[in-house]
Amino acid sequence: MERRSALKNMGMAFGYAVATPTLFSLLQSCKSKPDYAEWTPSFLDKEQGYAMAQTLDVILPKTDTPSATEMNVHVFIDAYLDEVMPLEQRDFVVLKMSKFYDKILADSGKESLMDIEPADIEPALRTYLKKRTDDEEEAHSEAIMNYMEAILEGGEGSLDDDIARFSFANDLRDLATWAYKSSEYIGEEVLAYLPIPGEYIPCGDMETLTGGKAWSL
């Protein structure tokens, strides 16, 4: 039971993003604005990096705020995989990523990830980011824990393809949102920012206190 609890808490995909100096340094190092069609990732191959960047811009598109790739979220996630994530979890991410994009290629009829477009990605995200029941959540978590437990014990695990795709899509969205909101521009210019809090107002209306903006910290 203790081992299974540890597996559940370790974050079996991108991991739970913890505000460590290492992660903050990664965020600060991703300030340049590469064209992701020409971008060469540090860990992912070029096709995977291009597909992930497009997916991030579908999740966090440009509106009156910058898109995910304008905030270099794709560069951060690639660096996070390369420099921070434990090997077992990283291998698991690659496995799930492959299943997710294989599905997109199969459904779109395209042969290369360099050829996919947002219209090819959107149906997969609609499918795999839809709300699940509590029973489905529990079943997915149990399947992932069983897989990771087998791998960590030196065996071979098996995981349903759709569960792998659900897990990848949700973990990518969660980490992208965290990285996006943690970027300097979004934190200071888009969200409500007060580096040294002043008066404590426990029940104030957000519209009055921040103009309707969520706090960045």
Question: What would your notes on this structure say?
Answer:
This protein is mostly helical. The protein is built from ten helices and no strands. It has helices at 2-10, 21-29, 46-59, 73-83, 87-108, 118-128, 134-152, 161-182, 184-190, 206-210. Helix 2 (21-29) packs across helix 4 (73-83), helix 3 packs across helix 6 (118-128) and helix 4 crosses helix 8 (161-182). 29% of the residues are buried. Mean pLDDT is 78; it is low at 1-13 and 15-19.
Task: Set down the secondary structure blueprint.
Blueprint lengths: L1 H9 L10 H9 L16 H14 L13 H11 L3 H22 L9 H11 L5 H19 L8 H22 L1 H7 L15 H5 L7
Helix pairs in contact: 1-7, 2-4, 3-6, 4-8, 5-8
Task: Decide which structural class fits the backbone.
Answer: mainly alpha
Q: What is the overall silhouette?
A: globular
Instruction: Return Rg in Å.
Output: 19 Å
N-end to C-end Cα span: 35 Å
Largest sheet: none
Number-wise, the strands total 0
Number of helices: 10
Uncertain runs: 1-13, 15-19
Q: Give, in order, the helices and strands.
A: HHHHHHHHHH
Mean pLDDT: 78
What percentage of amino acids are in beta strands?
under 5%
**Which percent bin holds the helix content?**
55-70%
